[in-house]
Design brief:
It contains four helices and ten strands; from the N terminus they run αααββββββββββα. It is of the alpha+beta class. The chain is elongated and about 90 Å long. Bound molecules: copper (II) ion.
Length: about 290
């Protein structure tokens, strides 16, 4: 049936059916997607939980918009399919004031809303805009006056090592963190560009030589997490991964004491703790 033969009530019925299908599909599929496609592991840290919220908000806006297009195409293909031997062209449409107004208002509200949400999320305490990065614009917020635990992440071809400046500048190839405390990562590199990516904690920070890149995270429960390099850094980049652990505070103190004993014979060969280190000349692209 071609739509120029449709009466006004028929058109309204089609519109109502289409809207009903779209609303039901959105109401069912949007929560299913948000619940079953979580990115990254929700609940492991304040960052991971925040990213889960951000993804959820974006999904809640994007999925109904995609379904609007898909449902419209599907409805038109089923409802207005022509079966006869002769294909009739439908009537031409020359704009529709009401529809245009709805389109402008809805898209403006969506974009303005996402802009406001994004601005709030980037300036909120602990968010990407508060005290993080190589040259932070705003000071970091510290919770309840407890000072953060600084942990330096040093990238080099092809592994990460970690220094704990408040524990005598101890350097170790393993990353262990206490939970419930603000961790202040200082990410840098000894040679080429790397990227420190602690997936389950929701942390990803560039590791560049000569740069002190700050990233905060508060692990919120014990467990393991993957550490990967997320920046192509040479032939063994793909093997630059390790496993980190989040543990209780007493377990963390025991681990630190054990690491200090283990590395004690070599610790005095290390340079003093610094924001960044100058690599030997041969490793500066030599
Ligand atoms: Cu790499």
């Amino acid at each position: 049936m071609s739509s120029d033969k449709q009466s006004q009530p028929e058109r309204h019925r089609d519109l109502l059916w289409f809207l009903l299908i779209w609303v039901v599909a959105s109401a069912v599929l949007t929560p299913l997607y948000i619940i079953f496609v979580p990115l990254p592991a929700n609940g492991n840290s304040n960052d991971a939980t925040g990213q889960h919220l951000d993804n959820g908000v974006l999904d809640a806006v994007a999925i109904p918009a995609v379904l609007l297009v898909v449902c419209f195409l599907a409805y038109a293909m089923v409802r207005f399919r022509q079966t006869g031997p002769e294909i009739e062209e439908g009537p031409r449409v020359y704009g529709h004031r009401g529809l245009q107004n709805v389109w402008i208002v809805v898209t403006s509200v969506l974009v303005t809303g996402l802009f406001a949400f994004g601005t709030w999320r980037i300036l909120a305490p602990g968010a990407a805009g508060s005290g993080q990065g190589a040259n932070p614009l705003s000071p970091a917020s510290t919770k309840g006056g407890v000072s953060p635990l600084p942990v330096q992440v040093i990238g080099q071809q092809w592994q990460f090592t970690y220094r704990y400046p408040t524990y005598g500048g101890l350097e170790t190839p393993r990353l262990v963190l206490p939970y419930g405390r603000v961790i202040e990562f200082h990410v840098t590199s000894l040679d080429v560009i790397h990227s420190f990516w602690a997936y389950e904690l929701g942390v990803k920070a560039d590791a560049n030589p000569g740069v002190d890149n700050v990233a905060y995270v508060t692990p919120t429960r014990p467990g393991g997490f993957d550490v990967r390099c997320a920046e192509l850094c040479g032939i063994w980049h793909g093997y630059m991964f390790a496993r980190g652990r989040v543990v209780t505070r007493p377990a963390f103190e025991r681990w630190i004491a054990q690491q200090k004993r283990f590395f004690e014979p070599v610790t005095h060969y290390l340079p003093p703790y610094s924001d960044s280190y100058l690599p030997p000349p041969l490793r500066r692209g030599g």
